[in-house]
């Protein structure tokens, strides 16, 4: 499969699509109170098989997708995930391959991630064991810290992401800044988004980036803002002066990045979403599985759906403005965070 884009995907606002976030499973080994609120899962038979995901990546790469982030649910809970990553890398040596993980099962795979050239975002919302257990529903902070050590030991490109929740982890800002400074890491706070129903989100737990930055600036000396979208995505990063660490903010609510959005999302049940905030989904899996149509034709039809969906990719902020208190009806873990 060629990695050179032949006809790039472009939406009606002229945004070119280069980035796929692929949810490999909706299952997770944590029960974060801001994310998953129930225990309902997509039935196994409706979840994409790895070979189906590989076919879709094969189809999207020639359309200009050069970056794929594997997410979930928790990718490592799905059996065969390391082998899947290896096959993806073999099929697409040039692909910018990334992973979002809670790290609980990661440590034994750190060396493989380095060998495959996978960049990792590690989600970590608290550095206090008891609080970590209360937020995630599992007493597993030591496993995540083992993952952090293993990733740094193997020199895997790494960022830490924490969901910023007022009254939950706001008192840990000094500890996260120290983590970034001491370990020479990027630590980013993501604004808490209202997703699904019944999560921790409320006006009082929402902690806007502006206030986080103000507090961080009182604790450490921050250098000027850096926006390098190729490396940092939508995050605005601030060097912590005198250290190799950086502190960053991701602001989906207070300062959206729709104008430069280049993303597509694929849910674990094979539904294409062109915007996190838009609940319109395009079911690719039933078509991909049709046995009465030759495969080449099926893939051609899927490609057309993708192209059509892209032309209808909205400006998410417009949707958000209409329903302030609910970013999306599905939770992050079912869409793929
Ligand atoms: N299990 C993996 C992990 O924990 O990184 C991948 C899936 S998780 C849904 C992806 C990311 O979405 C995590 O960093 C999580 O903190 C973030 N997330 C989930 N719900 C969120 C919300 N309501 N607002 C902001 N970030 C959220």
Description:
By secondary structure, the chain is α/β, with parallel strands linked by helices. It contains 12 helices and 13 strands. It has helices spanning 50-60, 81-91, 110-116, 129-136, 141-153, 173-183, 209-219, 229-232, 285-288, 295-311, 316-322, 332-335; strands at 9-10, 16-17, 19-25, 67-72, 96-101, 119-123, 158-164, 186-191, 236-239, 246-250, 263-266, 271-273, 282-283. The protein has an 11-stranded mixed β-sheet with strand order 9-10-8-7-6-5-4-3-11-12-13. A two-stranded antiparallel ribbon has the order 1-2. α1 runs parallel beside α2. It is globular. It starts with 8 loop residues before the first strand and ends with a helix. The protein binds S-adenosylmethionine (SAM). S-adenosylmethionine binds at residues 28, 34-35, 71-72, 74, 100-102, 123, 161, 163, 190, 192-193, 195, 332-333, 337.
Topology:
Layout: E1 9-10, E2 16-17, E3 19-25, H1 50-60, E4 67-72, H2 81-91, E5 96-101, H3 110-116, E6 119-123, H4 129-136, H5 141-153, E7 158-164, H6 173-183, E8 186-191, H7 209-219, H8 229-232, E9 236-239, E10 246-250, E11 263-266, E12 271-273, E13 282-283, H9 285-288, H10 295-311, H11 316-322, H12 332-335
Parallel strand pairs: 3-4, 3-11, 4-5, 5-6, 6-7, 7-8, 8-10
Antiparallel strand pairs: 1-2, 9-10, 11-12, 12-13
Helix pairs in contact: 1-2
